[in-house]
Amino acid sequence: MSTQTITRVKPVYSVTETAEAYAVTVQLPGVAKADLEITGENEQVRIVGRRSWQQPEAWKSVYRETGDHQFELVLTHDNAVDVDAGQAELRDGVLRLTLPKAAAAKARKIAVS
Amino acid sequence: MRLVRYNYPSSRIASTFGFGRSAFGGLDSEINRLFESAYAGCGGAQATGGSSFPVDLFQDENSTFVRAELPGVSRENISVEAVGDELTITASRKAAEGDKEAAATAISRTVTIPEGTPTDKVTAAYENGVLTVTLPKPEEVKPRKVAIQVS
User: Fold this and answer.
1) For residue A20, which of A107, A110, A111, A109 has the smallest C-alpha distance?
2) Most exposed residue of B2, B81, B87, B148, measured as fewest CB within 10 angstroms of its CB?
3) pLDDT band at B74, cuts 50/70/90?
4) Does residue B12 have a pLDDT over 70?
């Protein structure tokens, strides 16, 4: 157990919906690919991002507006998305996550015979 | 079927027990409104509703460092200008196709830097959505011995 507790904050994010998928955009400044963790279980998608940059020893902070906190975002879905088929892209501190809708959740046309 | 927004327990408890709007008769929203109007002129990140970005200032023996969080901004859309004792970072965002929320905007912050900073030696790097500007300290800051003639 580490003695230092790192607080976790909810990042700025947005969710948009198309006919085929949900697109989640999460702002994760300072988070590199290696420090990002996306897990899906029990109707939840959990995104945890640790800040990759560490303040060098010689640097003295003069004024801070950001923190050293981690980012954590938990999205709950009622199994309407296929997490296994999800795709994620992290570029310039922005995560774009595409979660395709599960087959059961898609609108279906029923032909009248 | 839809994605359900995750709520932190604190806000969930507040709504379950009927606090908030009904109990205080909209007082909390009134206070929020007053605070927003009071801080509107300060240019703070929160007060201006995301029209700015957070910056950090660091120092070591030889340089001053400015770090700005600018996620999702292309390198060519970031401009860094050092004039006199002011450093201005401007980031512009082009409007994304068919996305009303991502309209074209330009956001900027100005920070005061030590006077006499050699502006031709200022460097900037952008990584993982964070811009780091390195400003070498002016020569005059280093201590100098001045001999005083006694007449």
Assistant:
1) A107
2) B148
3) confident
4) no
Contact B126 A15 (CB under 8 A): no
- What pLDDT is attached to residue A88? 93
- Tell me the shortest Cα–Cα distance from A85 to chain B, in angstroms: 16
Residues pairing with A94 in the sheet: A27, A91
Residue B141: the pLDDT is 60
Q: What is the CB neighbour count within 10 angstroms for residue A29?
A: 26
User: Are A99 and A22 within 8 A, CB to CB?
Assistant: yes
What pLDDT does B99 receive?
A: 57
**Amino acid, res. B42:** C
Structure tokens at B118: 């050699």
E runs forming strands in B29-72: 55-59, 63-69
Asked whether the predicted pLDDT for residue A28 surpasses 90, the reply is: yes
What's the token pair of residue B76? Answer: 């060519």
Give the total residue count for chain A.
113
CA–CA dist A22, A97 (Å, integer): 8
* B138 torsion bin: left (phi>0), alpha (psi -120 to 50), beta (else): beta
